[in-house]
Amino acid sequence: MTAEAPVRRRLARSAAPAPIRIVHLGVGAFHRAHQAWYTAAVDADHQWGIAGFTGRSATVAEQLAPQGGLFTLIERSASGDTATVVDSIVEVNDGAETDRLVELLAAEPTAIVTLTITESGYRLGADGTPDLGDEQVAHDLEVLGSRIASSGDVLAAGVHEPLRTVLGRLVLGLAARRRAGAAGLAIVPCDNVPDNGAWVATGVRAFAAAVSRDLDEWIDANVAFVSTSVDRITPRTRDEDLETAAALTGYQDASPVVTEPFHDWILSGAFPGGRPAWENAGARFVADIEPFERRKLWLLNGAHSLLAYHGQLRGHSTVAEAVGDPECTGAMTAFWDEAVAHLDADELRLDDYRAALLDRFGNARIEHRLEQIAMEGTAKLRVRLAPVYLAERAAGRSGAAALTGIAAWIALLESGAEIPDAQASTVRAALAESGPLRVERLLQAIDDRIADTDTAVRTQAAVDLLKASGNRLPNVLASA
């Protein structure tokens, strides 16, 4: 006779939630494992509630709303799992609910807006300016023009075409805050983009300036943009993780999150309306964030991208599988050797950082899928591998390891792999070309600065060698 499974109650709040003082755009697994966890860890008095808005899908809102925003965070180490119920998210909305977003951004208690919408979600160029050729950007600039007067005031409510971009919705909310006379706030992007605070500031102000000089000036005077570097490996939740969460907590959770024990958050900038004491959970506030950004973008994220493309070419599915392959590890180590030549070893403790990354990557219980990391290759390679290649060339060296990582992306595309990318149409058009022109067009999609004839020829040679050598990477590196 089979024992019946225990009946478990669904997660639900037993006390009043914290007041909303933080708005987050892009609620997903990483936000919940990182910013939401940090906030819950330090907010014992429950003064910093988070209202979240989803990104491309409303699924997380549908899952968390019945639970009052509560969710289970499973920390998965090599030796076992532990679980915590995180209570900092107090409201979750469909990202398309612009009216609620505008209401919250105009509210005086709101002091912080955090974002995790991926690099491509901002729809900005490398210099932070909006891509005016993007249909969604053009649409939102037109809609903002119909909803915000030249004085910066939000026009009377009426039937309006909905905004489609995150920055468009954010600017409308800031216009409403200006009209309400509310105090300044901080915007804190948490995506893997160098100097992301200044980058997003350029984009937000460009959106605002396109419709109102007065609004642009108000943003300049009242809104602080904080640069951050975030680090916590957070794979997609699997069906079996729901049972793990229930077994560890005794409650049914429709949307638990799995993450590694390691966490890191570095911030640089002002918070006009105050902030939680995140430093009590290990966050660090620094005057110059650039060295820490480069360390993380190149050594962690760059290695992830390199493993994603090389690893899939060699038949692997997860980071742990790829880092257990000497061919992939050799390629990653060669890339790290190039990258650290342009980082301060003493300030950043690079030997310790590299050793810790190897340990984290090798945690086979964190099933970090290579196909997930491979997504949005053009945007990721632009900030993860291309800068190392350019720095190596400027130093008079070949940049072979970084270039071969880019070649692996191309080889994977040429193998017929479908890799989601915001520039998918550009990538498809490039793949339709022949010979070196195909590679040159793909390099342009990443960064114009690496799309010279010499680099295209060397990349094509690396792609050919990858195919001819059965993806044996050391031989390719020696020849690139």
TrEMBL record:
Question: Which family is it part of?
Answer: Belongs to the mannitol dehydrogenase family.
What EC number(s) are associated with this protein in UniProt?
1.1.1.17
Q: Which UniProt keywords apply?
A: NAD, Oxidoreductase
> Does the keyword field hold Oxidoreductase?
yes
Using the record for this protein, list the coiled-coil segments as residue ranges, or answer none.
none
Q: What is this protein called?
A: Mannitol-1-phosphate 5-dehydrogenase
Give the species. Answer: Curtobacterium pusillum
- What residues does the Mannitol dehydrogenase N-terminal domain cover? 21-279
Question: Which SUPFAM superfamilies does the entry link to?
Answer: 6-phosphogluconate dehydrogenase C-terminal domain-like (SSF48179), NAD(P)-binding Rossmann-fold domains (SSF51735)
Which InterPro entries does its entry note? 6-PGluconate_DH-like_C_sf (IPR008927), 6PGD_dom2 (IPR013328), Mannitol_DH (IPR000669), Mannitol_DH/Oxidoreductase (IPR050988), Mannitol_DH_C (IPR013118), Mannitol_DH_CS (IPR023027), Mannitol_DH_N (IPR013131), NAD(P)-bd_dom_sf (IPR036291)
Catalytic reactions on record: D-mannitol 1-phosphate + NAD(+) = beta-D-fructose 6-phosphate + NADH + H(+)
According to the entry, every stretch annotated as the Mannitol dehydrogenase C-terminal domain falls at 288-444
